Amino acid sequence: MLERVSTKIHINHFNQQFSPRDLVNVLRPRSYISLESALVERGIITQSPSILTCVTPGYPQSFRGKSVSIVYRKISPELYWGYEEKATRYNKYLIAEPEKALLDWIYLNRQEGLPTPLDELQLQFLTPAKLLDYALRFPRTVSETVKDFLVEAAFPSQNPDERRPGARR
After folding, report:
1. DSSP-derived secondary structure letter, 125
2. What is the mean pLDDT of residues 142-167?
3. How confident is the model at residue 169 (pLDDT cuts 50, 70, 90)?
4. Mean pLDDT across the stretch 13-22?
5. CATH number for the domain formed by residue range(s) 2-163
6. Is 166 left (phi over 0), alpha (psi -120 to 50) or beta?
7. β pairing state of 92-96 and 83-87
8. Helix, strand, coil in percent for the chain, rounding step 5
9. Domain limits, the chain
10. Which of 8, 55, 147, 158 is most buried, judging by how many CB atoms fall within 10 Å of its CB?
11. Which of 6-10, 25-29, 66-70 has the lowest mean pLDDT?
12. pLDDT value of position 19
């Protein structure tokens, strides 16, 4: 009924109120929930990830068990901001603001050369002015992506083919 997650850290499965969020800042005190995990919690995306994704200015690390998977991805110390504190029944954790979670996701995907599909985001949960302001604190490639995204959202293309990434023009 106990599951080992890390040295000296176990999950008590008799505790029905347990949440993986209880472990986020226990395993890595300087971290916050971000990326897909924060985006789905904030309603910006609908596909729920199977792992809890966090960012940290420290080294990246994964904690995997039978009932919990938490992945910490490294972010520049200058980008460690834009989060708020929330509470579970037994602990507190930090989670990115919606705009910051999106920017972290774009930033880390760009660093790894991955695409950043922005066409299925629920924009009503983002504040465009805050998103643009926050984007200016990121590298130019991220802020340019956000500017293009906001322009396309404000003035959608009339031709459906032009909205698809990689479509011929």
Report:
1. G
2. 75
3. very low
4. 76
5. 3.30.460
6. left
7. antiparallel
8. 35, 20, 45
9. 2-163
10. 55
11. 6-10
12. 81
